[in-house]
Amino acid sequence: MEQETCSSFLRSTWNIDLFFVAVELLVLTKNVPRGTFRRTTETAALAHFAQARLWDSESCQHSFFCSFLQALFPCRGFLMLKARVISVSNQKGGVGKTTTAVNLAACLAAAEYRVLLVDLDPQGNASSALGVDAREIKPSAYELLMQECEPTEAIVQTELQCLDLVPSNQDLIGAEIELVSAFGREQRLKCLLSSVSERYDFILIDCPPALGLLTVNALVASDSVLIPLQAEYFALEGLSQLLKTVDLVRKFLNKDLAIEGILLTMFDRRNNLCHQVAAEVVQHFESKVFDTRIPRNVKLGEAPSFGKPILLYDIQSPGAVAYLEATQELIRRTQRPKPMKKADGTDAEAP
Ligand SMILES: Nc1ncnc2c1ncn2[C@@H]1O[C@H](COP(=O)(O)OP(=O)(O)OP(=O)(O)O)[C@@H](O)[C@H]1O
Ligand SMILES: [Mg+2]
């Protein structure tokens, strides 16, 4: 917020062009490379496609400003540069939580943000959607929550260099029961993630379709909650229940929990009901609703069976384009600067 105030002050009072030229020079002379896409043969097409969509002029200006500040103060703690933790949650089943968590995480990773996706659903769908067979995997989210392993031991790499995953499997059902009598049961995930949050720009948590202890742990560990909402008749009823839980978590456990936004999923433009529901949601939640609508798209449904996010499955599909646009909105909303470091901690390559 401070950063935004400062940024808009500079935009309104300085000659913006000169300012950014000065920033560019400073960044160059200090040899601080700006975040760019890694161009391997495998991800070159992805990089070009994603780059064009992810960086609009406003985000670029913002990132130049951040490059300037980072060049002056090259420490990650400066200006909120610790991971933004976002729970993707809705207690209603099958509304696109996992699809949203996986694809936003993949799009952010394609932009070289360092991303950790925590699969907090015993169904393990996010793990399999990223090609990780988590059925027998140990340690997983269960061992993590039960403090049977170090957080770093529960993290596995994925096909995308900047995207890591804490996989999950059916063992996690046990955690919900075993945690009931545990001390600090709602704070477990928060404590565990705080030890790795410096390594990432974003931590996304895929929540189960329930408002139990796992979801509460996710909400307590998060800066914000992103709510995928299927544009259908009962959507708003479920939403009010989730918002009550968010309020309770704010009141007793995490006063800073924000609503990152509501993302309408499986949107069918030809269906009047979808438009009516969307209008009602916008009327209630105004700017909290993402402008991007995720369309119902066969490729989005197919991609998990190949263990790939949509970017690696069919980058030209309407589903991929929509998730790239949603990612761009997320970057704008969270005011994240362009990444400066790669997942292995080295500087991002020059363009
Ligand atoms: N935009 C979309 N277009 C087509 N199919 C989709 C879309 N979004 C999700 N799906 C499909 O709908 C089903 C439910 O999606 P998803 O698993 O993401 O929902 P969920 O909210 O995570 O479900 P659960 O509550 O069981 O965890 C999946 O088969 C998924 O592939
Ligand atoms: Mg799911």
Please tell me about this protein's structure.
- The chain has 351 residues and is of the alpha/beta class.
- Helix content is 45%, strand content 13%.
- It has helices spanning 2-13, 16-29, 44-54, 57-72, 97-110, 125-129, 141-145, 172-178, 188-194, 213-221, 235-252, 272-285, 298-302, 310-313, 318-334; strands at residues 84-88, 115-119, 156-157, 163-166, 202-206, 224-230, 258-267, 289-295.
- Strand 7, helix 12 (272-285) and strand 8 (289-295) form a beta-alpha-beta unit.
- The longest helix has 18 residues, at 235-252.
- It is globular.
- The two termini are 29 Å apart.
- Mean pLDDT is 81; it is low at 1-43 and 74-80.
- The structure holds adenosine-5'-triphosphate and magnesium ion.
- Magnesium ion binds at residues 97-98, 121, 125, 206.
**Overall pLDDT level:** 81
Overall spatial form: globular
Question: What class, by secondary structure content?
Answer: alpha/beta
How many strands in all? 8
CATH architecture of the largest domain: 3-Layer(aba) Sandwich
Largest sheet composition = 8 strands, mixed
Q: Which kinds of small molecule does this entry bind, naming each only once?
A: adenosine-5'-triphosphate, magnesium ion
Strand content is 5-15%
CATH class of the largest domain: Alpha Beta
Q: What is the topology, as strand order, of the major beta sheet?
A: 3-4-2-5-1-6-7-8
Q: What sequence of helices (H) and strands (E) makes up the elements? A: HHHHEHEHHEEHHEHEHEHEHHH
Could you say what the CATH topology of the largest domain is called? Answer: Rossmann fold
- Identify the CATH homologous superfamily of the largest domain: P-loop containing nucleotide triphosphate hydrolases
What radius of gyration results from the CA coordinates?
A: 20 Å
Outline the low-pLDDT stretches.
Answer: 1-43, 74-80
What number of domains? 2
Binned, the helix content reads 40-55%
SS summary, helix count:
15
Q: How far is the N terminus from the C terminus?
A: 29 Å
